[in-house]
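Proteins fold reproducibly. Next comes a concrete instance:

***
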Amino acid sequence: MPKAVIFDLDGTLVDSVHFHAEAWVKAFEQYGYHTAFDDVRQQIGKGGEYILPEFISEDEIEKNGDKISDYRKQYYQENFLPKVKSFPKVRELLERVKADGNQIVLASSARPKTVEHYQELLGIKDLINGVTSRGDVEQAKPNPDIFIAALNHFENVSKESVIVVGDSPYDAQAAEKISLSTVGVLCGGFSEDVLKEAGCIAIYKDPADLLDHYEESPLSS
C-alpha cells in the first residue's frame, strides 16, 4: 500500500483541459497564428514554454512568446476559471485515500492563485498535506521538478511509497523520470493507449471510477 499520493489538478480533479486549450487558441489567434483546437488540446499538461515551440518558430517565440503566454493566462482567468467544475466524487476519493492513512499533496503546473481557487472549488483543503505549483519550480512538466517539490511535503515517506494520479502523458513522463509510478485517468481527454505508452500502471475513467474500483487499484495495493 502506498503511504502518499500526489494528485495532479487540471484534467484530473477539475474539468478544465478544454478551457485551457481554448485560451491557448485564442492567445495564438490574438497575435496572428492559427492553431487547431484538437492539436492544442493534446499539448495541455505541459508548461507553456513547451507548448509554444509546438506551434511557432524560435524567432516568433522571441518576438511574441511572452505576450502570447500572458494573454493566455489573463484570458483563462477572466473567461474560463469561473466556469471550471469539479469532476464527480473528488472529495470522496481523497477521503478514502486519507482513511487508509496516506498523505496527499497536490502538484500542478498552474499558477498559485489558480491552485488556491481549485482547492476551494473542490472543498479539499482539510485533506491536503501540501501543495506545489508552477511558482515553486523552474521547469514545468514533462520535467519532474513539480513532483520533486511535492515529495518535500511528505513526512517520513520513502519515494518508493508514493504514487502519482494524473490525466496526461506528461504527468507519467515526469513521474517516471524520478521513478514514481502513475495511475492515469481518462477525463483529461487523452486516450488509454497514450497513457499506457507514457507509462501509466493503471487507468480509470475519472476520480469516481477510481473510487469505485479503489480496493483493486494501486492506491490500495
